[in-house]
């Protein structure tokens, strides 16, 4: 069930309407401004969008810039009074389009470089783990990073979006491909990962 976060009352400044699935983002107060609402969404979705862009582009600085741009566009879209039915889908679609445009501008398919992967690995381990558990987790992430290098750009994008909880249909909408194609990309990605890292 979706949560309505923006009031339809035409007397209020904010005329945009936004629906969110309840998981992952808390209910927002009716008295919040558009800026406060977008800030809450930014806080909830910033890291997943950033990591998606980082994996897609392989450049932390560009991923950070584009993450900011995604949420500026969300604010502008809602400020104009336009509705957003599924905010996660909308945000990832915009992120994908921005990343694709960026990649086209540079005419390159960048892979995640070692420093970018190290940044992701440093942020992911649970701080509650003891040093031995952290070392094991870091080693597992390094194996995963090496395995991900074998995936095509489409396979990696599908895998990342699926890991963020998007459904096949939604991934297809983000990437502009059929749902069956999403399934094929995911199956190929999983087969490659299992072949490279059969113990998991």
What descriptors fit this protein?
single chain, 200 residues, mainly alpha, Rna Polymerase Sigma Factor, Chain: A, Arc Repressor Mutant, subunit A, 3 domains, two-stranded antiparallel ribbon, 8 helices, 2 strands
What does it look like?
With 200 residues, this protein is mostly helical. The chain has helices spanning 34-57, 60-79, 87-106, 114-123, 131-148, 153-163, 168-175, 179-196, and strands at residues 3-4, 19-20. A two-stranded antiparallel ribbon has the order 1-2. Helix 3 packs parallel to helix 7 (168-175).
Short description:
With 200 residues, the protein is mostly helical.
* CATH class annotation of the largest domain: Mainly Alpha
Shape: globular
Measured distance between first and last alpha carbons: 34 Å
Specify the CATH architecture of the largest domain.
Orthogonal Bundle
Oligomer: single chain
Rg measurement, Å: 18 Å
Q: How many structural domains?
A: 3
Residue share in helix: 55-70%
pLDDT under 50 segments (min length 5)?
1-28
**Arrangement of strands in the largest sheet:** 1-2
- Please count the beta strands (DSSP E, at least 2 residues each): 2
């Amino acid at each position: 069930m979706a949560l309505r976060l923006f009031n339809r009352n035409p007397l209020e400044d904010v005329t945009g309407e936004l629906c969110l699935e309840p998981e992952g983002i808390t209910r927002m107060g009716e008295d919040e401004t558009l800026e406060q609402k977008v800030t809450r969404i930014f806080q909830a979705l910033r890291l997943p969008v950033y990591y998606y862009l980082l994996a897609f582009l392989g450049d932390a600085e560009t991923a950070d810039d584009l993450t900011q741009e995604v949420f500026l566009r969300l604010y502008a879209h809602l400020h104009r009074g336009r509705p957003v039915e599924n905010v996660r889908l909308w945000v990832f679609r915009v992120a994908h389009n921005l990343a694709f445009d960026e990649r086209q501008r540079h005419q390159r398919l960048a892979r995640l470089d070692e420093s970018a992967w190290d940044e992701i690995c440093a942020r992911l381990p649970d701080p509650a783990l003891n040093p031995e558990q952290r070392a094991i987790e870091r080693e597992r992430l390094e194996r995963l990073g090496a395995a991900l290098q074998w995936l095509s750009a489409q396979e990696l994008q599908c895998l990342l979006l699926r890991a963020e909880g998007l459904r096949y249909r939604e991934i297809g909408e983000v990437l502009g491909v059929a749902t069956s194609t999403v399934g094929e990309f995911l199956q190929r990605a999983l087969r490659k990962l299992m072949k490279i890292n059969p113990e998991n």
